[in-house]
Amino acid sequence: MKRWTVSRADEGAVKKITSATDLPKLLAEIMAARGYNTVESLAEFFNGGELSDPFLLADMQNAVDAINSAVDAGERIYIFGDYDCDGITSAAVLYGYLMSMGADVDVMIPERGDGYGLSISAVEKMKESGASLIITVDNGITAVDEAEKISELGMKLVVTDHHQPTETLPKALAVVDPHRRDCPSPFKQLCGAGVVLKLCAALDGGDCASVCEQYCDLVAIATIADVVPLVGENRTIVSYGLRLLKNTENPGIISLLEKSGVDISALTASRVAFTIAPRINAASRFGSPVTALNMLIAEDESAAEYAEELCALNSRRREAESGIAEEITKAVDSAPSLLEKRVLVVAGKGWHRGIIGIVAARLTEIFERPAIVLSIDENGEACGSARSVGGFNIFKCFDYCRDILIKYGGHELAGGLTLKESDIPALRKLVEEYSAESCRETPRPTLNADKLISGGDLTVENAESLSRLEPCGQLNPEPIFALSGAEITAVYPLKNGEHTKLELLYDGARVQLLMFGKKTEELEFSVGDKIDVMANMSLGEYKGVKSVSLRAVDCRLHGVKQEPYFAAEEAYLKFRRGEKLSPEILRKGDPTRSELVEVYKYISKRPITLEGLCARLRESVNPFRLRIIVDAFCDVGLAKYYPSSGRIFVLKPTARADIDSAETLVKLRGLL
Fold it and tell me: How far is CA 356 from CA 111, 132, 285, 663, in A?
């Protein structure tokens, strides 16, 4: 169960906003709750403004001079990119612009297996191909040794990047990176393609408007894909880029949108993130990033062929991702004790290294805790990717384990590592040590709502007004609203029961709640139940009539008190891990015979999730005791618990079960 929080807007700030702007009250409340408490901050958010002068970026004039000199002299220029969507798109933009200048230019993008960034071998290959000037895009800021090699070989280097620099900058004619300590540029959160856009504008004499008209569609894709904050200049880039994408002239993007089945007229940042970006990234995961680059720069019918190939590669990616995730979830279902640890660490041989990061993200969502996924190759080396939740710094965790790691990197919520297969048991031990020391409780995700809405907030006008927040993304998420005590009046299956629609009566208003990915047969709620909901609000239209609809983000039975639930869950996990608990707490886990009978009768009616069971029986049995009871039933073969779905199934016993002999109860009562 996720921890829910609900923001509260300052009423005084809301009054000032509504009196000084044309924002409706609901939108004013959302913005105030997010910290936009003044008219000035709101104007900056919504207007964005023009992009700042590209020459404010440190070394930009030097970069322009170096490139112009190389173009004028007819020197061969190599663009060196990265294999992800940002790096590929950055290379495509700069290639297109330099070609329009009449440059002798080519592109090199490493394969994912070659590793990230410049390498000595790549430098040597570009030298052999006649390169005189190398321009990095979306990489290069830490390529100190490679820069020295470029100088030794008599080539020149211009670095453009957006990653954090180290103490030593690479030796180059120019190092353009907004994160340089001496960079006066006001906006620091550009992606790699955003920095390239500024470079092209500088080459154009400083005019951002002209290059935005040419390339903002591609730069918007990169900005969304790289999950940089969609505020400030990024908001301006994406807003304009989305408008261009709806009428793009890029043959590759046109083909990719068509083959992805995207409604171009309704294109949003979210749809770009879930359709275009994964297909471009699939090129390096299951093919070559050059395929995606060729699609973006193609000017003929070959663009459609490249787009078709990317869609096929993306299908392979989805299949492989699902296969690995299914293998892991089955393993966890067979051994639920894996979830007694604060961090889930799993390893497998031959898992595709290009997608283990995606799998780690899925596991974090399913099991609601940090996850580390390790793929072991034939040489006994394990390459891993991790995803975390707020409050647990995965990079610091890796740093704690550094003595057994070959290499590692990342930030608070995501990271990568490499180690020997033989050191995986030691990694599990060290990760648990660090998590026990750094977290008082098991790290769990938090879901925040912008507002607890009333029935009066569920209006067509309010739903329409939310479009003014677009484009939504990092640091500007799509609004989430909390509903407390909504009554279910009807349940409808959608698409053969793969999805579910609920009709709700909430605070005098009737509204539909769409539950995508929730099978109707697995729904734990019934007509007449009251539920608490976290949902997005959108505008629906049927036969010309507009209406408000909600899209579920999370749901619970009404009245669940989450903090007591989490406290009971912590007590259970400590019991399972063998950590010390007071006799008073242990007694709260010891069930009576009547409680055992009550729970068994309840789960015998139909499969139910553990969370649902705790919610239904919260008045009679505390959650710690329920966990003990369920484990006891599993011990003696009366039930089976599947952590991946959270569901409990009653089994037909092959012999009379002696519940008092259950391993869980014997252990608990032994401690008492």
Answer: 17, 38, 10, 35
- 458, 256 Cβ separation under 8 angstroms: no
Confidence band for 650, pLDDT divided at 50, 70 and 90: very high
Res 657: pLDDT: 87
Closest by CA position to 648, among listed 519, 518, 524, 552: 524
Give the Cα separation of 429 and 485 in Å (integer).
43
Whether CATH 3.20.20.100 fits 335-445: no
pLDDT digits (tens, 9 = 90+) for 623-643: 999 999 999 999 999 999 999
Architecture of domain 448-557: Beta Barrel (2.40)
Q: What's the rounded Cα separation, in Å, for the pair 368 and 4? A: 13
| pLDDT for residue 542 is more than 90 | no
| The three-state (H, E, C) secondary structure of 479-500, written as one string | CCEEEEEEEEEEEEEECCCCEE
Kindly report, residue by residue over 135-166, the tens digit of the pLDDT. Answer: 999 999 999 999 999 999 999 999 999 998 98
Domain ranges in the chain?
Answer: 10-47, 54-207, 335-445, 448-557, 562-671
Select from 465, 383, 443, 375 the least CA-distant residue to 416: 383
Average pLDDT, the chain: 94
**Residue 25 neighbours by CB under 8 Å, 6+ apart:** 14, 18
- As a whole number of angstroms, the distance between CA 7 and CA 13 comes to 14
**Which tens digits make up the pLDDT trace of 239-278?**
999 999 999 999 999 999 999 988 888 899 999 999 999 9
Q: Is the pLDDT of residue 290 over 90?
A: yes
In sequence order, which residues have a C-beta less than 8 Å from that of residue 217 and are 6 or more positions away? 241, 244, 245, 248, 250, 253
Q: Burial code of 384-393, b = ≥16 C-beta within 10 A, e = fewer?
A: bbbbbbeebb
Which residues lie closer than 8 Å to 484 by C-beta, 6 or more apart? 452, 532, 558
Over 90: is that where the pLDDT of 652 sits? no
Angle at the Cα of 290 from the Cα atoms of 288 and 291, rounded to 5 degrees: 80
| Segment 647-661 mean pLDDT | 89
Q: What is the pTM of this model?
A: 0.91
Which residue, among 449, 467, 470, has the nearest Cα to 45 in the 3D structure? Answer: 470
Q: What CATH number was assigned to the domain covering residues 54-207?
A: 3.90.1640.30
Contact 230, 471 (CB under 8 A): yes
- pLDDT band at 532; cut points 50, 70, 90: very high
Can you tell me the distance from the alpha carbon of 573 to that of 45, in angstroms, rounded to the nearest whole number? Answer: 44
pLDDT value at 321 more than 80: yes
User: Under 8 Å CB-to-CB from 531, ≥6 apart: which residues?
Assistant: 485, 486, 488, 504, 525, 555, 556, 557, 558
Q: Which residues contact 655 (CB under 8 A, 6 or more apart)?
A: none
First to last CA, the chain: 29
- Reading the block at residue 75, the tokens are 């020197």
Lowest mean pLDDT among 107-116, 188-197, 428-437: 107-116
Task: Confirm whether 54-207 and 335-445 share one CATH topology.
Answer: no
- Which contiguous run of DSSP H or E holds residue 273? none
Closest CA to 30 of 532, 486, 477, 508: 477
CATH architecture of the domain formed by 562-671:
Orthogonal Bundle (1.10)
Q: Check: CB of residue 480 under 8 Å from CB of residue 534.
A: yes
Q: Are strands 446-449 and 3-6 parallel, antiparallel or unpaired?
A: parallel
